[in-house]
Amino acid sequence: MNYHDITKDDMRNGPGLRVVLWVAGCAHHCPGCQNPVTWDPDDGLPFDDKAREELFEIMGRDYISGLTLSGGDPLYPGNRECITELCKQARTRFPDKTIWLYTGYTYDEVRDLEIMDYIDVLVDGRYEADLRDVKLHWVGSSNQRVIDLRLGKDIEINAREDIYTPVNNNLSCGCGD
Ligand code: SF4
User: Which atom of ligand 1 is nearest to the CA of 38?
Assistant: First the structure.
């Protein structure tokens, strides 16, 4: 798996201050995507041991609420093995911190993947420019959903605006706008 960036103290991709891994690779090619540079899975840098330790060093800081995985699409087929192992390790090392994952797939398309056992919140769905809504929390278009997997896999899913109070609505995630 390749990645483009690791950003720290991020306030726009989940609650609190977070470390965000921006991976390379996305097959959805949504019109209006803010990060088309991330579509090529062979672009960017290899996500190697040094990058993983940098990520974990930031995640371990007291003021960091958790890890967000975005891109690109962390669930691009070529990324799945690596991102699953990363989430498994992050869950073990930092059990009290949250893991959010943004994907262009719908929940139904990925709900049976092993990685669902290691993440707390899935933000799902392609970015649909016609459904762009800057008032929504954590998503770019109204078809996308913030799904709290801690409530169980068979919950009726919906946008969790009541739970996840945004810092602001100026979103810029890879799967949003
Ligand atoms: S908006 Fe997200 S899912 Fe759509 S092309 Fe961009 S990175 Fe991929």
Answer: 7
Which atom in ligand 1 lies closest to the alpha carbon of residue 32?
1
Residue 62 CA to ligand 1 center (angstroms) comes to 31
175 lines ligand 1 (CB under 6 A): yes
H-helix or E-strand containing 8? Answer: strand 2-10
- Whether ligand 1 lies within 6 angstroms of the CB of 52 is answered as no
Decide if pLDDT at 172 tops 90: no
**pLDDT, tens digit, 9 for 90 and up, residues 54-100:** 999 999 999 999 999 999 999 999 999 999 999 999 999 999 999 99
Are the CB atoms for 174 and 70 separated by under 8 Å? Answer: yes
Determine the residue of 29, 106, 109, 132 to mutate for testing ligand 1's pocket, defined as the one with the most ligand atoms within 8 A of the Cβ atom: 29
Model-level pTM?
0.90
Answer for the pair 123, 101: CB distance below 8 angstroms, yes or no.
Answer: yes
What mean pLDDT is predicted for residues 43-61? 98
**What pLDDT sits at residue 73?**
98
Q: For 126-129, which contacts have Cβ atoms below 8 Å and span 24 or more sequence positions?
A: 126/28, 126/30, 126/175, 127/30, 127/32, 127/33, 127/34, 127/175, 127/176, 127/177, 128/30, 129/30, 129/31, 129/32, 129/177
